[in-house]
Specification:
Distance between the termini: 32 Å
Order of helices and strands: HHHHHH
Radius of gyration: 14 Å
Structural class: mainly alpha
Helix content: 40-55%
Strand content: under 5%
Low-confidence stretches: 1-5
Number of helices: 6
Length: 101
């Protein structure tokens, strides 16, 4: 099992077909937790997950409580929360020019 690089793994594609973005989030977190050496890829991988498209309850109940996310990806978490906080801005330039929304 090679953990020296995250290049070329399946979550680097925008053509991934899942029914819920939560599936992608859980898969990434499982991969990261498998070996602590992989923590170096946390931000790189989670920046490719469309966190704003997660269900808002999932964000609050699971994502916000994860220590790895809170320590390394706070800005991604805030972006996801802002997306849900003011729904009328979801189609604003801030989010429409973003690969995560």
């Amino acid at each position: 099992d090679e953990c020296g690089t995250a290049e070329g793994v399946w979550w680097g594609t925008t053509r991934l077909q899942v029914t819920e973005e939560e599936q992608v989030f859980r898969a990434v977190m499982r991969w990261l937790r498998h070996d602590s050496k992989r923590n170096q890829f946390t931000y790189e991988l989670l920046s490719r997950v469309r966190l704003p498209l997660l269900d808002k309850k999932f964000i609050v109940d699971e994502v916000d409580k994860d220590p790895l996310i809170k320590s390394q990806c706070k800005d991604l978490l805030i972006e996801a929360m802002k997306f849900h906080l003011i729904p009328e801005r979801q189609h604003s330039e801030e989010f429409t020019q973003n690969e995560r929304t």
